[in-house]
Specification:
Radius of gyration: 23 Å
Mean pLDDT: 90
Strand order of the largest sheet: 6-7-8-3-9-10
Shape: globular
CATH class of the largest domain: Alpha Beta
CATH superfamily of the largest domain: P-loop containing nucleotide triphosphate hydrolases
Helix content: 25-40%
Length: 313
């Protein structure tokens, strides 16, 4: 990747708290204008990494830069040139919508001649024009979310960091929020998103999977689903799915079996369809499970993640 195309770069980054490595020797690059996802369970090291890149934590070792600024020596410059939206939205509930926007305009040093224009942009983007005088505490979670995004982007930074931005938000609000992220990215802003939602990770143009502080895989969602699993994934619809799941999980020939609604996803070590379907059918038949439908499927990101984590555990 050409150096001029890179918005964020991390090389062998480590952050230790005592003997515990919250971030353990990770490396990646993010292109300018890219929507980049950091996917992992709670406690994986996502928030620690984002705090380092936002100039809020100093790493223990390694290298990192955001734009042209070094994470070790230029944290204040980084803070001036990014937008950051935390898990808790960082809004003041006792202030009105408009007062929150005014406050962050001051924090981000928005030029006086642009303040009114940027305020109106946030209000329109967040659909809060008619609620500008309402206390933020009285807003629904989806509106708070959009307001927090608008406040983080008031000064139009080249890089925007969003830490678990849709946690607790309903699916419709989450989808609307991602439409806003795309509109910001389309104008050239780099967006770095941490999430533990597998379906949400599909919206990112590229992903890094992190577990116990280590980077376990990097690529587009399609690349991860296509190249990260050895064997094949099958979906079975049957009567008594809980009983079927128990039987499959106990069988040593099955790598992984997980419940997806009332269906089961099964990872088996065979890539050839004949061998794989015969194995699954045999196990279910031996346990007297009546199969309604059995078919090979493209693995979901959750299938991939579970498989990779199982290898590392």
């Amino acid at each position: 990747m050409n150096e001029n195309e890179i918005a964020v770069e991390v090389a062998n980054l480590v952050k230790k708290f005592g003997n515990f490595a919250a971030v353990d020797d990770i490396s990646f690059q993010i292109k300018k204008g890219e929507v980049f996802g950091f996917l992992g369970p709670n406690g994986a090291g996502k928030t620690t990494t984002i705090k380092i890149l936002c100039g809020l934590l100093t790493p223990t070792s390694g290298k990192g830069r955001v734009g042209e600024y070094d994470v070790f020596t230029q944290s204040e410059k980084i803070k001036e040139n990014i937008g950051y939206m935390s898990q808790k939205f960082s809004l003041y509930d006792d202030l009105t919508v408009e007062q929150n926007i005014d406050f962050y305009s001051g924090i981000y040093k928005v030029k006086k001649e642009k303040k009114k224009e940027r305020k109106e942009w946030v209000l329109k983007m967040a659909d809060l024009e008619e609620k500008r005088n309402r206390k933020t505490a009285d807003l629904a979670l989806g509106w708070k979310q959009r307001l927090a995004l608008g406040c983080a982007f008031l000064h139009e930074p080249p890089v925007l960091f969003l830490d678990e931005p849709t946690s607790g938000v309903d699916p419709i609000s989450r989808r609307n929020f991602w439409d806003l992220i795309y509109s910001i990215s389309d104008k050239g802003t780099t967006v770095f998103v941490t999430t533990h939602y597998m379906d949400e990770a599909e919206y990112c143009r590229r992903l890094a999977l992190i577990f116990r502080g280590k980077l376990v895989r990097l690529g587009t969602p399609e690349e991860l689903k296509g190249k990260s699993i050895s064997g094949s994934v099958w979906e079975v619809e049957c009567k008594n799915p809980i009983e079927a799941l128990d039987s499959l999980q106990k069988d040593k020939r099955v790598i992984e079996a997980s419940l997806f609604g009332m269906k089961i996803h099964i990872l088996v070590p065979f890539a050839r369809e004949e061998e794989a379907s015969a194995l699954v059918s045999q196990i279910l038949d031996e346990n007297k499970i009546e199969v309604i439908r059995l078919q090979k499927i493209v693995p979901s990101l959750e299938d991939v993640f579970v498989s990779l984590i199982r290898e590392k555990a």
